[in-house]
Amino acid sequence: MGTTTPPRTLAEALRARGDESLAGLLRARPDLLNPVPNDITQLATRAGTRASVVRALEHLDRFALQTAEALAVAPDPAPYGILLSLLTGDGLDDGEQRDDVGAAVTAALPGALATLREQALVWGEDERLRLVRTARELLAPSPQHPSPTGLGPTVAEATAGMSPGRLQEILTTAGLHATHDPVSAVAALSALFTDRTRMAELLDTAPVEALSVLDRLVWGPPYGEVTPNPTPPVKWLRDRGLLLPVSTRTVVLPREAALHLRAGRAHRVPEPAPPVVTAAAERDPQAVDRAAAGQAFTALSTVEELLKLWNGGGPAILRAGGLSVRELKRTATALDVTEPIAAFWVELAYAAGLLATDGESDERYAPTPASDEWLDLSAQHRWTHLATAWLPATRVPGLVGGQDAKGRALSALGPELDRSAAPDVRRRVLALFAELPPGTAPDPETLLRRLRWERPLRGSSPSGEGTDLRSRLALWTLNEAELLGITGRGALSSQARALLEEGEETAAAFLAPLLPEPLDHVLLQADLTAVAPGPLERPLAETLSVLADVESKGGATVYRFTPGSVRRALDAGQAAADLHAFLAAHSRTPVPQPLSYLIDDVARRHGHLRIGAASAYVRCDDEAVLNEILADRRSTGLRLRRLAPTVLASQADPGSLLEALREMGYAPAAESAEGDVLITRAGARRTPPRTPPTPVPEGPPVPDDTLLGAAVRAIRAGDTAATVIRKEPAEGGPSSTTSSGSLPRTTSAETLATVQAAAMTGTAVWIGYVNAEGAASQRVIAPVRVEGGFVTAYDHTADEVRTFALHRITGVAELAEDGKG
């Protein structure tokens, strides 16, 4: 009576768990909660489905997976000792199996087994370990899907269709007693292959070429092709059952023989411990922080320049979505970066909600209203905004330029760039950085090996990109982290460490002292250039970017003043006096005379010509200027004609006419219908309010503790309702159907009498109930009040008080006392 009966099924094993253990299962495998299982049996069934088991296997580390693979080729059930020997070997391999590896496996196996048990992939006591059937089918060997261990089928499996006569021939050739019983023959052959002494004696008589054949098959794949007339070494192996036929042209090395040749090991190299991430370089932490801060400032400048570039309306959207190759190349040229890096900045701004589509008929990309709010933030907070948008983003810029599964090109901002594994890889890579001492740059190769150990099956992708996607994501993470200033000189910066561990405000506080202070001045030079020796305050930078063109960037930015740039400032509503005052106020050097002359000369001619809609017209008080335009051959395409001494009409639209005359060297200004000069301001185009793109989740989210507790209570209550023992009706008493799996059936009078009695005595009863939607269910309830055609009761199944309509109760049955029917 005091002993515990070993579980016979996975459902019984789960039922014996505590609530905390069940919550751990649901936390590790949240897909089991959608929807919440009705009871333990349904939970066990769902935990054994192929899709759920595949997802669980993908989340195992390499040693836990190796443990599951060993169980897949072990007897079912397998004692703990057999499992351990499959991972460590039998110790009879002439010293090839190192003692330290065996000790590490012995120490790590209980933890790996606990992980498999927690995730309901393994159940049973240590002497009867069982891998769930679906996992065994996924990991066990077959001709179509070779085992990850490289082992083939057992002798019994490989000889299942073999004739008794052929079995007798193999036994005789192998030196065993022939038997007419196929079962005994298979057992005798299996016993030979598992006997170390007799197997060694048999192999001692093998030709050297035959041993070479075995060497090629022993670690897998175990299948080989043979000709109708095999070579003598192959024939020697086949005649003794060391190679068994799978088809007319295929043979296989049976599992028992392979394990003998492997000294009992299921894997060539067990990996009980994760690879250590080694340091590639040790750097000064302060130098790392400064380098990362410098790159963070460059990141901010690049994103600001991108927003400015697309301020008046960015590139058009392809019909299939995203940017064209030409537009990406144009953007890369404007930002002075390569196309892959340009794709990263474009995708980052999009993920941060700073860029979006405008939704117009001629749909284009443009800055969002949120971009103006972002520009108003301090530099450190602008950086934390970008970094926190990058961490959870599932869009992968590194894929741009590649192809999807159907051979279509992947474009920046296109619809096929989401990879749900990206956030997990990013955070794991940065977590491995954070485990190293400050200033330490990890070796990328050891970092990749660590990631492959942690998730050996998490590489493939639905788009058919192969098994290296996780490694590619990690390498892209290293590059993007350096571009963004998360890392500096290959090591994690203090501000990024603070962002990961303490939040945005702490990270901003770390970064603020490392960023250069914005300047309120420039240095004007006589060659019509201005040098900004550092970052400029935003109003100064915006005005100067209109008044001058950026000639070069770097530690200092060089701006060049040209007639076109000065005209651009005048078009924006500035007067010549305003420009002179602006330069005098913000230059640490005197305003050069050539620059003053340039401004005055352009201003004198600016607006001398007026462009309006006729389709278009040119108006000028100086008739000589209009005569000059008419005489210029370059104006032929404008189809100009004189309407009055000071007015020319054109069939071109005002915008084209304006640009054409500017190309001819004039400085016209557009005017309104009232004759006022139109002021054109750059950057007026904004999208409607847009939210950043939502990351594509990788499976269901991990539930919180409150939801887990409620789910466990609901499963327990449903299990109680499903497994409770019902009292059989007394002979001659009210008849009710109480067979398992069916609803009880009683008359209305019997139902009312039974629930009233239960309410008076405070006992629980079992009812069948059909809700308003017609869905039938069985429940265990404790009636509290019966009145007005309704029963108010505590529903053990739902773990709450509910009201049930009497006319919807199909029947009622009492529960057995003390678990006895």
Features:
33 helices, five-stranded mixed sheet, alpha+beta, extended, 821 residues
Description:
The chain is of the alpha+beta class. Helix content is 44%, strand content 12%. The protein is built from 33 helices and 25 strands. A five-stranded mixed sheet has the order 18-19-17-16-20, covered by helices on one side. A five-stranded antiparallel sheet has the order 24-23-22-21-25.
Annotate the secondary structure layout.
Blueprint: H1 10-15, H2 19-28, H3 40-47, H4 50-58, H5 62-73, H6 80-88, H7 99-118, E1 122-123, E2 130-131, H8 133-139, H9 155-158, H10 164-173, H11 182-194, H12 196-204, H13 208-217, E3 223-225, H14 232-239, E4 244-245, E5 250-252, H15 255-261, E6 279-282, H16 285-309, H17 325-335, H18 339-351, E7 355-357, E8 365-367, H19 369-375, H20 379-390, H21 422-435, E9 440-442, H22 444-454, H23 469-484, E10 487-488, E11 491-492, H24 494-501, H25 504-511, E12 523-525, E13 529-532, H26 538-547, E14 549-552, E15 557-560, H27 563-571, H28 576-586, H29 593-605, E16 610-612, E17 616-619, H30 623-631, E18 640-644, E19 647-650, H31 654-663, E20 669-670, H32 705-723, H33 748-761, E21 765-770, E22 776-787, E23 790-795, E24 800-805, E25 809-814
Parallel strand pairs: 16-20
Antiparallel strand pairs: 1-2, 3-5, 4-5, 6-9, 7-8, 10-11, 12-13, 13-15, 14-15, 16-17, 17-19, 18-19, 21-22, 21-25, 22-23, 23-24
N- and C-termini, Cα separation = 20 Å
**How many β strands by DSSP?**
25
Mean pLDDT across every amino acid position: 86
Biggest sheet, in brief? 5 strands, mixed
Structural class: alpha+beta
Residue share in helix: 40-55%
How much of the sequence is in beta strands? 5-15%
Please report the number of helical segments.
33
Choose one word for the global shape.
extended
- Low-pLDDT stretches are 459-467, 731-740
Task: Provide the gyration radius in Å.
Answer: 39 Å
